UniProtKB/TrEMBL annotation:
Organism: Kaistia hirudinis
GO biological process entries: glutathione metabolic process
EC primary class: transferase
Annotated keywords: Transferase
Name the record gives this protein: Glutathione S-transferase
Gene Ontology terms for molecular function: glutathione transferase activity
Domain GST C-terminal, residue spans: 88-222
Domain GST N-terminal span(s) in chain numbering: 1-79
EC nos: 2.5.1.18
InterPro entries, A to Z: Glutathione-S-Trfase_C-like, Glutathione-S-Trfase_C_sf, Glutathione_S-Trfase, Glutathione_S-Trfase_N, GST_C, Thioredoxin-like_sf
Keyword Membrane found: no
Residues spanning the membrane: none
Subunit structure: Homodimer.
Amino acid sequence: MAQLHHHPFSAASRFVRLVLAEYDETADFIEEKPWVRDPALLLMNPAGTLPIFVDDNEAVVSGGAVVAEYLVETKGARMGEVRLMPEHAADRAEVRRLVEWFSRKLHGEVTDYLVTEKIYKRRMTPAEGKTSPDPAAIRAARANIRYHLQYIGYLASRRNWLAGRELTLADFAAAAEISCIDYLGEVPWDADETAKAWYARIKSRPSFRSLLTDTLRGVPASTHYADLDF
């Protein structure tokens, strides 16, 4: 069986989990510590980052966006219209632009700060670099999330889904990031009703169910996290 080396609150890992579920594909989930440079993981991915997908054919694919497109190419064809990537090159370019926006910019300005300070640091040992949460990083994330939420609302108000008429990888890349932030109760949903409506649509999909059951000892989910109607 295929394997996914991941962490439940790695947004890139969640992105891949959503795509796997959307294609009704199964894999053994192997939980890793993103803050530890494990020699075994470095052999598979010299960057030392998650996720790492090991397919049935022993192909090793690393990185959320790369794994997602690999799944589109290898698993998505049999799904007919549910391809998650558009037919035309210009439309695919827009999907890739947004995947990079959410996976890099939203992640770097919001998700990484909050997950590192409020989740990862709770799990680290002193030998692994444990320090107290950085209030400045949390404040920066809370300021930046409003801008990103407004951008999601802007896209959703002009298109059926974020990248165009059809559901694509762009929606799952954004939702993976937002789901981590929402678990922590750090999404100001009152800031943009259109973004909130888009998220309600995507988190109501069957592929989202496993994410909504994720729990973390010592860090409870926000009260509305698993509520499909908020």
